[in-house]
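go over this:
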Amino acid sequence: MTKMESSKGFETASNNVRGRRAVLRRAALCIVTVFLSCWCALGVASSRGNTLLPNSLEIPGWRTANKPYRYSPENLYKYINGEADLFVAYGFVSLVGANYSSGPESSDSITIDIYDMGEKLNAFGVFYSKRGRESSSLKIGAASFGADGYVVFYKDRYYVEILSFVQGEQKKTEHVIMARKVAEKIEGDISPPYELSYLSEFGRIDGSERYVKGGILGHAFLDRGLTCDYRIEGDVVSAFVALFPSSKDAVGSFEEHKDFLRRSGKKCVHINGFGEYGFFSQEPYHKNILVVQEGSFVVGVYDLLKAQKGIELLKDILKRIRAANS
């Protein structure tokens, strides 16, 4: 090999090495950029959560017992093992909380947990999955309830739990004061999720509204949506509005529902006046049911003794859906 050939070979090899190093540098830079972006996003979320917690100066006689703690969907089970799946199913984003003490010599304590549920509908869903229908409101946030030493409320996309362990009578209501301070710090309004506008006012039983995740009527093909109870001519019936990403998904769910009923030995009768996708049938454990597909929604009225009793309710819900999405 001549010196010239050797020199050219060395130059080519050097260029290859430099090229590989440049690729590696660009890859490393991308990784660092992505990492920093995620870290900054988490930092912003954590800072936002921290600002919702009252500090010691805002609650005379109380001070934070430790630094605020945080949990994500990946490790929430370490904090509330038995309930983590419920929150994650409803779109849980993050939790920030803190413990408060009334003094170094006191055993009195208050714990504040603030769950960011990502969307107002998710916070509503978790709240009403825990609230009994007979629970009285404390008029905090969008909706609230509580008992001795316990306050729960939601506002906008946040669901909040406050637990108090105090002995003195004078401190019995201080966790309620803290709850009001947290509610004041949360931005947004106290209006219910706009999806509730789909539900008819006709005969509605107040407080029966629910946002269900994981299967309406226990059906996986009706994964998520609203349910509500109604009183019609002395009978209590229920309705649902299942939510889907597209009309194609809604039609698919509708057909799965018919297939399920047929496999269960039930006959599906087409109902006129509701387009191509509408039927009346018997729903196992829920008497009779009317089901209609409308755009990206599937609407049903069930627990019916007679189909006719649910027709007007079904029509009103469909009318509301069309008005809200026109």
About this structure: The chain has six helices and 14 strands. The chain has two domains: 49-185, 194-324. Residues 3-52 form the longest helix (50 residues).
